[in-house]
Give the backbone structure.
Amino acid sequence: MLVCSTCARAFSATEPRWQCNCGGYLLLNSPAMFRREDLAQRPGGVWRYCEALGIQDPANIISLGEGATPLLDVPFDGCFTSLKLDYLCPTGSYKDRGSSVMLSKLKEWRITEIIEDSSGNAGASIAAYAAFAGIRANIYIPESTSPGKAAQIQLYGANLIKIPGTRENTAQAARQAASDIFYASHNWSPYFLVGMKTAAYELAEQYFWEPPDWILTPAGGGSLLVGLHFGFTDLLNAGFIQKMPRLAAVQSASCDPIYRAWKTGSMDVSETEKKPTAAEGISVAKPVRGATILKAIRESRGVVVTVNDDAVWNTVEKLGKHGVYVEPTAAAAPAGLTRLREAGVIECGDRVAIMLTGSGLKATDKVVEHFAANGAGRA
Ligand SMILES: [Zn+2]
């Protein structure tokens, strides 16, 4: 069943739908779960957990080989830290987990054309999976999106529409256009979130069913954070793990609505003003799933922390010294870890995993600009 997050109305999952009649966003409520003993015979990746992913007929699965990303141990800031290299997914970002499940469901629903709006990575990911599925994709992006990300979307054959103004103007334009075409938004689709749960399942396996004390993620729209919470909740309910890891959300100091809501004890996230930031992927003035994001943080006894652009760039360079090349948005999470360790919230001996969400190759233009302005190799 698809259940409304606002009024709790339930809808059958066999009918295409992205929103409740009341305007609320939908969540998939399904008790189905994979069995631990079946995993040994299955290949790595998102679909080894197929029972939990809400697809009725496996013939509809749209997969480019996403998931099964490595967990790399490094001495980050001198403390043992595990990096989950989710930027190694097929389009260079973790969004592929969500796109694979969402596009599979769209195929199951016999949808032939979709609209999505994105600041870049989700648009590229959905364009790739739509291409593979033979579904026509119209991707709306802000005019300010990195040229590299825009080119990637076009290369997958999507119809690219650039919208002047803010990220919010882009979302508005996409929703207007979606009156005749199905709105397959990563910020609204319950199946996109379902795909994110696989990051939790994978981490649990990589930690031999004893999850780390902390998991850090960058947070803008919050899909990864919420997906991790849902995924670990599934594992707790199934008795596969005994403890929920604490989830730390990292936001840019230039756009921090989740931080503000968490700090003031609000139940939902209000729109905030935002300034330009190197962490463009998490520059979201008002996330759609605000209440669910706050619940994930609070139920996991997590925290929210903000980082400025200097810290983000320093961390991009610091990770480079470990052989890891990520885009600035992804570097926000380890930059947040440095802050939380300095503040004594996370201790050096705590077991910590960081989700690294987007490849540095996505942001070559920004990295070139950064080095031109600051000189290479300072860190
Ligand atoms: Zn509703």
Remarks:
- The chain has a mean pLDDT of 96.
- The longest helix spans residues 190-206.
